[in-house]
Specification:
Elements: H1 13-30, E1 38-54, E2 61-68, E3 71-78, H2 82-87, E4 100-108, E5 114-121, E6 127-129
Parallel strand pairs: 3-5
Antiparallel strand pairs: 1-2, 1-4, 2-3, 4-5, 5-6
Length: about 140
């Protein structure tokens, strides 16, 4: 036989090692998403007006205007990605600018106006989880 394409069984050890490192690197990249920036030990609940929804990977975000004690604060609420949210009953049009909603979740450890969403309550008391184990009340930090 002539010089053809070699099968996988004929790869030299150096090529195998490089292949393993490339595949392992993909696992490491996937694992960088963490909820450690959020304090799941105390639930936070916010009621406000949706300003913007970013329906994108790897996470969807909600910009929420909250007025409490006469002070206006723009909160950034982090969610799962669109595919995970769709599995939980969300659609791209579930939240629209101007909607008044209540969100529960875990507040950012650094005290900034950021929240990891656990659940959203829409008009008519329709409640949607933000991740599969949202019943824990932990904001996904368990």
């Amino acid at each position: 036989m002539g010089e053809g394409v070699r099968g996988c069984g004929s790869l030299d050890p150096l090529t195998w090692a490089a292949l393993v490192l490339v595949l392992a690197g993909g696992v490491t990249l996937r694992a960088h998403h963490s909820v450690l920036a959020y304090d799941g030990s105390t639930a936070t609940t916010l009621t406000g007006t949706v300003v913007k929804v970013l329906w994108q990977n790897p996470h969807a975000y909600i910009d929420l205007d909250v007025v409490a004690a006469g002070t206006h604060t723009r909160w950034i609420v982090e969610n799962e990605g669109p595919v995970a949210l769709e599995r939980l009953g969300w659609t791209k049009s579930t939240l629209m600018p101007g909607d008044v909603i209540t969100i529960s979740g875990a507040r950012a450890r650094d005290g900034s106006a950021r929240l990891r969403c656990a659940a959203v309550t829409l008009a008519g008391d329709r409640r949607l989880p933000c991740f599969a184990s949202a019943g824990t009340g932990s904001g996904g930090t368990e």
